[in-house]
Write a structure and sequence with these properties.
281 residues, alpha/beta, 6-stranded mixed β-sheet, 6 strands, 43% helix
Amino acid sequence: METNLADAYSNRLLLISPPRTGSTVIARLLWQHALITHHCHEPFEACYWGGQGAESVASCLGNPMEVATGDRVRLADVPRGSGLLIKEMSFQLTPDQFDELAGIATAPVIFVMSDPRLSTTSRLRVVRELSKASTFPPFESGWPSLAEQVARCRERGVPYTLVDSDDLRADPAGMTAALLAALGLPSQAGLESWSPRPTLQLCSPEVGALMSDVRRADDPFYRKVLGSTGIQPRPRVDWDREEALISAAGLHVEVETWLRLYREMRADPNRLGPERVELGS
């Protein structure tokens, strides 16, 4: 499969993140670039949620979404010299699966993150809608896996860049320019705005239903971003409310650990953008 992908795509980007950190926003931004023509959405999702094997990964990579139309097309029909973005959740990957995807990329691996307090409460809202659950397994926060994958890149000399989506919200044009430069893509204006695509189906109903049957009809993970028109500033955060939600879900201790990991990654020299004066408290 790697050989076939190399034949079809001159540019192959890999974007990995914990859930609810703004990775789909960055995917939408990159779709705007003239060199990114196709998208593969979470090829290992069915493996994690449904115990499916390599055939499900091959099916995803072998039938990419054409960005311009939203249609799935056969890899054999992708014009030579096209560009691919693969997006995946950090916790859905084993180390070997991460290595497999990283080996496909022609540019530094893009790791996306944001304040774990906000990604946690956002995930709590979604899982409540999907299953009426009051919490979720800490591993599925994606933060332990993200830290391990960044460390794996350092140890193995795999190029990577870290993007804090809140930095992008604060300076869309500047951060977009920095991201394109880090990825070796030519500069292109206007990537921070787009047309709404609310009917776009990133995850097939069959794969989405492996997590929750509710996702067959309407997927709350992507509803807002697919209906959006561009990158917007984050609204003011009520940190007391966020902390109360985290405590009620029994995740306070874990979130403290994830905050430490997040602060360490914000100090990583491969993180794009300026230093933030102070995290919210």
